[in-house]
Amino acid sequence: MMVIxxxxxxxxxxxxxxxxxxxxxxxxxxxxxxxxxxxxMIEHDQNGNLYVKTICEDCYESFQKNAKYYLNDYxxx
Length: 77
What we know:
Layout: E1 2-8, E2 14-20, H1 25-28, H2 35-41, E3 42-44, E4 50-54, H3 57-65
């Protein structure tokens, strides 16, 4: 079974997961990403699980209030 974990790239919060035997990139929207975006956002582990870096609502709101936070690789909340 494959698991796709969605994690905030800034604070590390686990946002959710999908479990299944197979997924199509079109179902997940990965086909709309460039190769550079895919390599930046998607990681694989040794068991075949995927980790997708995204942004949580808290970090998004922080960025809306303080645009300078975009310059950081992470945010400690």
